[in-house]
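Before surveying the methods themselves, we first show a specimen of the format, giving the amino acid sequence and backbone structure tokens:

:::
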Amino acid sequence: MPLLDSIGRTINYLRLSVTDRCNLRCSYCMPEDGIKKSAHGDILSYEELYRIARTAVSIGIDKIRITGGEPLVRKGIIGFLQQLAEIPGLEQLVLTTNGVLLEKMAADLRAAGVQRLNISLDSLKPETFRQISRCGDLARVMAGIEAAQECGFPIKLNMVVMRGVNDHEILDFAALASTSATTVRFIEYMPAIREHNWQRHVVPGTEILSRLSRQFTLIPLEQAAAAGPARNFRIPGVPGTLGVITPVSHHFCSECNRIRVTASGMAKGCLFDGSQSDLKPALRGGSDLHLAQALGAIVDSKPVRHQMTPEECHHQAFSMASIGG
């Protein structure tokens, strides 16, 4: 039976963070001075993370995305992914990465059973990339993307569009879909850290599509059953596709199919909702039934929608790295 929340949405997707640590310091993800690192004992072990994944699948989850921080910085990640890939009933195992370590790890990820990669890439210009990431080397990321493609990974590139920062590169990113079977997704800037005057960075999805339409013919694609929140388009005669994700200007909460668990075991029904539930008591002192009930309670309490508009937001500031994006 499908796993339904209180308003009838089917919840089949778990975003599972394995670390809050990252080898970049992206401006929209965390404050410039970084975040306080969790103590070693506060981070769930791989055994605990596996138990969450297995239990989630047992109650109706069939897609798991591994996130961070940057998941590839955690030692032992390949063996953990191999374990996840063998869970009966898990149909999709995917991973989000910034690509910095991907060149050396792509083949092992493919062999472990990861089916798709989402790669965060916010600029194709080295200086802009360094400005956004505060420390990143674009050449390493591009080498990682090439290695992943050579391993046969379907690639999604996620660009957070920020006015006055990288929005002049929208057409350059779209052109990547013309040369390979890459999905390029444009994501509206979200005020996670609640930077002062954050609204100035938001380029609405309608404007992104308008800019794209001046250069390309966009044909809407049907939404796949287990797809994420993107509105997807194809360009006639090219192998790739484009997508636009609009959490600010046109929320997709009525179709949200996910829950999240952080690396410290906090479960959330919505990225921008302040409520969360600590799974550690069920993990460290309870049965699988208790854990299933705790995950089910997160599903049951999932909010109808987030309270964020293009003009204002009401959540407390947080680092995306600490929650899992």
User: Anything to note?
Assistant: The chain has a mean pLDDT of 90. Residues 13-323 form a domain with the TIM Barrel fold (CATH 3.20.20.70). The longest strand covers residues 155-161. The chain has one domain: 13-323.
